[in-house]
Structure formats: structure tokens, C-alpha cells
Amino acid sequence: IAHESGVHKISTTTIKEPIDKILNSLSKDTNFTNFLERSCKENHLKIEDV
Predict the structure, then answer these.
(1) Residue 35 in contact with residue 43, Cβ under 8 Å?
(2) What is the pTM of this model?
(3) Close Cβ partners of 26 (under 8 Å, ≥ 6 residues apart)
């Protein structure tokens, strides 16, 4: 009888939740959002594309 190894795949939700929390807190940080807007303007990018 073949025995499967206990390899667990990391679900995307495991990774996504902490990233969502980080992005949420960054979006409330005016220093970060000002930097992001300035960087987009300097590089001719739309903030929606970032």
C-alpha cells in the first residue's frame, strides 16, 4: 500500500489575509499614499494601475 507524504499546500487565503491587512493599513497612511501618488505622477502611472 502506497503511503502519501503529508505535504500541505499553502492556501492562497493564508497568504492573502495578512497582505490585505498590510494594504489596508498602508491605504490609511497618508505618508505612504502621498509617496505613492507622487511616484505614480513622476513615472506617468495611474494610481489605479498600482
Answers:
(1) no
(2) 0.53
(3) 32, 33
SS3 43: coil
pLDDT tens for each residue of 27-40: 999 999 999 999 99
- What nine digits make up the cell of 47? 494610481
Distance CA 41, CA 36 (A): 9
User: Residue 44: left if φ>0, alpha if ψ -120 to 50, beta else—which one?
Assistant: left
Residue type, 2: A
Residues in the chain: 50
pLDDT tens-digit map of 1-50? 555 555 556 566 677 788 889 989 999 999 999 999 999 999 999 888 87
